[in-house]
Amino acid sequence: MLNVILILVLAVYFSAISWRLRKNRPEERTTKITRPLSIIINLSPLIGIAVFAVLFTFILKGRLLERVTHAFLVFAFWIYATRFYQYILSNYKKKDILFSSIIGMIFSILLAVIFTPLDRYVSLIYSYLDWYSIFLGCGLYIIFYLSTIIVTKSAKQNK
Hints:
It contains 6 helices and no strands. It has helices at residues 2-21, 31-59, 64-90, 95-115, 118-129, 133-158. Helix 1 packs parallel to helix 6 (133-158) and helix 3 (64-90) runs antiparallel to helix 4 (95-115).
């Protein structure tokens, strides 16, 4: 159950960082790098769905529900880590946001690495939540995109 709490801490931490970023403008020098990265992050769930659909249809057989919830959750961790990386690039002069984003990126990567082996995921998360773990993944995506929308709207209003 501690693992579920750590996942929720990641979502709350990301929301707090995003909330703080809504008042800051990103550095203009980093726009060439961060804008394409933002597009990739926003499109990655669609690409992920296509890739995982092919994998689950043709390659990965058996334990489908475990594999789907596992892929959904671990993919969310990598999206969080990538967005934290984008925050690092676009706010490198603001030391508090830079440091917070580095911690968030490391935390996201650690969670992704810890939960990547399917058997470990099953023993740490799936055995407690069963198929309800899909709601945990959906919650991560909802928090991610709501926070991203808030930051994007604020950035457009600040221009």
